[in-house]
Specification:
This protein is of the alpha/beta class. Helices cover 53% and strands 12% of the residues. It is built from 13 helices and 8 strands. The strands form 2 sheets. It has a 6-stranded parallel beta sheet with strand order 3-2-4-1-7-8, with helices on both faces. Helix 3 packs across helix 4, helix 9 crosses helix 12 and helix 11 runs antiparallel to helix 12.
């Protein structure tokens, strides 16, 4: 096999089965896994992010997991730079890198070679936009972004106020659309992109099962421990699905049943937004239906692609 400069990408929506699949393939193909999940970066956020278990982490080398505290802000430029460094180091060890995750922005920044402009934060402008959001609401601010840059709005959840504010900040600072500033260069790798697909109802059932398992495993206690450790509930990291709803439960703004129902609802919405990044008709992605034979089929496909290089 010719593995030089080849990058195996495993993508798909949350709860589709990326973790177990990528570990199985990495073991067969001398691979190392580079996480492309923005929530796995943070230490102490294990249960609510469905982070690989200690046993899973031992089965194959993993990277970009537990590399930051919840109050550290990683932007896309930092992630891209670190991912490039790690992927190149994997090549140096003679192994095959696997980029695995559901954060479409991270994956596309790597496989499309985005040139991310060094746009310095304008904190005064950011504060003004944040105050504007307080007046018109998160959804109202997102509608303003939709008017100015529909492409950016289509991939930013209106509940993710931080990203909406950042997009508007860049637009107002540069006079250009946020989506256009991420210009593409030649990707330094040869990406082989594989997607995992499941019927929507089956996926939703897996999501519900996962959320119930998270709660049984101590998600509420995990959130309480983070707050007791001094991490502010207003941190962007703690607004992530699962954490934000539990915080509202702990503060008495939601009942336990309401929080659980909201986590399930918001996760479904998130899955639909992921589809904006991973489109079924994207010619770069070869989709595989989840089945008992899927890992064998993926391995055969990868080996064939590598041999053709």
């Amino acid at each position: 096999m010719n593995t030089k400069n080849s990058l195996i990408v495993i993508l798909g929506p949350t709860a589709v089965g990326k973790t177990s699949t990528s570990i199985a393939l990495a073991k067969r193909l001398h691979g190392e896994i580079v996480s492309a999940d923005s929530r796995l970066l943070y230490r102490g956020m294990d249960i609510g992010t469905a982070k690989p278990t200690p046993d899973e982490l031992q089965q194959a080398p993993h990277h970009l997991i537990d590399v930051a505290e919840p109050d550290e802000q990683w932007n896309l430029a930092i992630y891209q730079r670190r991912a490039y460094q790690i992927i190149n180091a994997i090549y140096g060890r003679g192994n095959l890198p696997f980029l695995v995750g559901g954060t479409g922005q991270y994956i596309r920044a790597i496989i499309e070679g985005w040139r991310i402009p060094p746009q310095r934060p304008d904190y005064n402008l950011r504060n003004v936009i944040t105050l504007w959001a307080e007046e018109i609401g998160e959804e109202g601010l997102h509608q303003r972004l939709q008017t100015l840059d529909s492409e950016a709005a289509s991939i930013i959840d209106y509940r993710n106020l931080r990203r909406t504010v950042r997009a508007l900040e860049v637009i107002f600072s540069t006079g250009e659309r946020f989506s256009e500033l991420r210009k593409k260069q030649t990707c330094p790798y040869h990406p082989i992109v594989l997607g995992i697909d499941r019927p929507r109802e089956e996926l939703y059932a897996r999501i519900d099962q996962r959320i119930e398992a998270m709660l049984d495993s101590g998600l509420v206690e995990e959130v309480r421990n983070l707050m007791n450790a001094g991490f502010s509930p207003d941190l962007p990291t703690l607004s992530a699905i699962g954490y934000g709803e539990v915080i509202k439960y702990l503060y008495g703004d939601l009942s336990y049943c309401e929080a659980v129902a909201l986590i399930k609802k918001n996760t479904r919405i998130f899955v639909r937004r992921q589809a904006n990044w991973f489109k079924p008709d994207d010619p770069r992605i070869t989709w595989f239906d989840a089945s008992e034979k899927m890992v064998d089929e993926m391995e055969e496909f990868i080996r064939r692609q590598l041999n053709e290089l």
